[in-house]
């Protein structure tokens, strides 16, 4: 009984601190930034905490844990509890994004997936010069000849590939060199960015990550905005939610797939850090993910309606 009570107290403190930080938006420093990826998993632990507390005779703490569990549910339910919605009308656009893991992902496997899925647009992150060559040899030009590429060694290169004509533009103030271009879809001009933020691990990387997110285009800029890539963030990070406050919405959440993981790598559990963010002029129709050898990220595919 004493062990149950001690364990109950540990759960109460841990779970309360994390969910308070999440709702208050205080996750701008280590270790709270990193802890937010565990929020979906801690929600299940809060249910266990209730049982332990009530079993240990701690009725008042058990009731408190009920409130904590409700707070976790309030953070998670909007991401997948989406009722039936009619398919949006407009020009259909299929987009794909994947992090190539320092250019080491299976280029031939990616091109085979492109051939089967037939995306209109592909955004890649961690695009190296060697990866550009590997994708070209694998035949990507046959499917996506329009290209705006910003390759670099290791992790800071990005690129955009398209079945249509891309018009290159620029974006400054980010750690990685982000490929940016416009694409005409029907009567709409899409302003597209292949997003890759700094991974918020320790020290200055958290500040870099915050600045990377802040530097992304606002929805008030000309054209209709489309951001897709590796944000190294989830809906539980305040800096990421700020993008929604600025007018973006997550395609995955729009179709009830907001908890669908796109990344898993020690010590991070399966979690959605890759996103397709849309402004009011673009609506989601569906989401899929696919494995790709050589990277811990899954290929994320989103079907959209433009206009």
TrEMBL record:
Keywords, alphabetical: Endonuclease, Hydrolase, Membrane, Nuclease, Transmembrane, Transmembrane helix
GO molecular function, one term: endonuclease activity
SUPFAM superfamilies, per database record: DNase I-like
Pfam families on file: Exo_endo_phos
Top-level taxon of origin: Bacteria
Domain Endonuclease/exonuclease/phosphatase: 96-294
Stretches that traverse the bilayer: 7-26, 32-54, 61-82
Entries under Gene3D superfamilies matching the protein: Endonuclease/exonuclease/phosphatase (3.60.10.10)
Protein name listed in UniProt: Endonuclease
Organism of this sequence: Actinocatenispora sera
């Amino acid at each position: 009984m004493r062990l149950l009570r001690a364990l109950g107290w540990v759960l109460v403190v841990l779970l309360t601190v994390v969910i308070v930080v999440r709702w208050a938006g205080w996750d701008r420093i280590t270790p709270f930034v990193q802890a937010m990826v565990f929020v979906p998993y801690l929600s299940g632990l809060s249910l266990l905490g209730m049982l332990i507390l009530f079993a240990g005779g701690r009725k008042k703490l058990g009731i408190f844990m009920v409130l904590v569990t409700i707070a976790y549910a309030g953070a998670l339910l909007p991401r997948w509890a989406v009722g039936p919605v009619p398919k949006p009308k407009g020009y259909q656009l299929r987009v794909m994004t994947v992090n190539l893991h320092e250019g080491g992902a299976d280029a031939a496997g990616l091109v085979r997936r492109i051939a089967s899925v037939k995306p209109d647009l592909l955004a890649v992150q961690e695009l190296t010069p060697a990866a550009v060559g590997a994708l070209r040899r694998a035949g990507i030009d046959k499917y996506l000849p329009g290209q705006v590429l910003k390759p670099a060694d290791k992790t800071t290169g990005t690129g955009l590939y398209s079945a249509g004509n891309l018009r290159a533009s620029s974006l400054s103030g980010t750690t990685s060199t982000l490929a940016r271009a416009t694409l005409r879809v029907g009567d709409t001009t899409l302003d597209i960015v292949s997003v890759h933020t700094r991974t918020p691990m320790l020290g200055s990387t958290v500040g870099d990550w915050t600045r990377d997110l802040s530097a992304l285009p606002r929805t008030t800029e000309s054209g209709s905005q489309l951001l897709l890539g590796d944000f190294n963030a989830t809906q539980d990070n305040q800096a990421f939610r700020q993008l929604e406050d600025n007018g973006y919405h997550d395609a995955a959440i729009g179709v009830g797939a907001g908890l669908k993981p796109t990344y898993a790598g020690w010590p991070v559990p399966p979690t959605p850090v890759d996103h397709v963010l849309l402004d009011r002029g673009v609506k989601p129709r569906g989401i899929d993910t696919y494995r790709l050898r050589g990277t811990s990220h899954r290929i994320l595919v989103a079907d959209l309606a433009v206009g």
